[in-house]
Amino acid sequence: MNYIRLRKNNLYVDNISTLKLVKKYETPFYCYSLSQLKNNYYRFNNAFKEIEPIICFSVKSNANLNLLRELKKMGAGADVVSIGELFKAIKAGINPNKIVFSGIGKTEKEIKAAIKKNILLINIESESEANLINSISKKFSKKTSIGIRLNPNVTGKTHQKISTGGKDEKFGLVYKDFINLCKKINKMKNLHLKGISVHIGSQITSVEPFKKVLIIIDKIINKTKINFEFIDLGGGMGISYLKKEKQINLKKYAKLVNKFLKNKDSKIIFEPGRFIIGNAGILITKIIYIKKSNNRNFVILDAGMNNLMRPALYNAHHEIVSLKKTGKSLRENFKFVGPVCESSDKFSDKKNFSNIREGEYVALLNVGAYGMSLSSNYNTRPTIAEVMVSGSKHKIIKKRQSLENLINN
Known about the structure:
- By secondary structure, the protein is an alpha/beta fold.
- It folds into two domains: about 5-30 and about 280-405, Lyase, Ornithine Decarboxylase, Chain A, domain 1; about 35-275, Alanine racemase (TIM Barrel, Alpha-Beta Barrel).
- Helices cover about 30% and strands about 25% of the residues.
- The protein has twelve helices and 22 strands.
- Strands 4, 13, 14, 15, 17, 18, 20, 21 and 22 form a nine-stranded mixed beta sheet that branches. The protein has an eight-stranded parallel beta barrel with strand order 5-6-7-8-9-10-11-12, surrounded by five helices.
- Helix 2 (about 35-45) crosses helix 3 (about 65-75).
- The radius of gyration is 23 Å and the shape is elongated.
């Protein structure tokens, strides 16, 4: 079900018109639907209910504390990649027994924090990291639970910059190195090898790459003879950014995992981020100017690439809609751009768009994942507010940064 939709030509989030929101909050601002967030989480959970996985929300996709608290209420754990994300997850009330720490460059400080918090797993990515964790654990007189991240040399036919499973990527260990490290870890007295972890990329809409990964994990298990307590299959499940773009078939993926788990005494971990939060967020922005130039209408917004980096970083597409659709679409060329002093500060080209005017508002859709989390102060612009809508209620869940705070730091 879609809780962000047009109703009588007005864009609504849950039961609230976005036109009402722009009267209350300064643009630009992020707006999230709690109903959509819940719908996505329970849809994912229900698809895999037969195996009852541990769902560790990918905090890097959206680290808003209030949203993390809502996910905790639903039963989510957390996948973190920094000490900041670790502490945020714990502050949100997420049980350390549901937290996995990933990433190739964990510092000594981060490792110490993870060990002290007794999290579920530290997913290691090199022999050097294993040695460091073993050494720190010895000083703490602890035996630390770890997983090893596999690089399966499988890609998800996604954008090159969000593909992480190829053999030339920096992530994980290739098959041979993985096997060798398993043998070495058996001799490290302060490590407890509990898991195998794999994450091949993001925005994957086919189950075929995941099927290949499961086959490789089977080979690893047969080769090492290790009964891994946890098999962390990562995230990467894609959503629809375009109307005609397909989502991943969760039922088909679940069948593959169910079949894979037969005759195995292992618990599955998933690390979804985008699938849970992606379409639950929009970016509401005001049209500052419309400039006609070279047979094109440059629609200049008050939101820029510092607020939403994905189009500039990945050439990502986000649908743009008017908060109030009026009349027929104009058969003209529109280029939606931001105010940042970069040519890459652009969002979308449209050949047809509704009749819009300066001072009106539009929304960029499906920005819940990697929207606010990638934002910056570039051009010395304040970070913007985040608003959450629940039914007929709305509230600020992160305040807009003040200019005073920005210029004094």
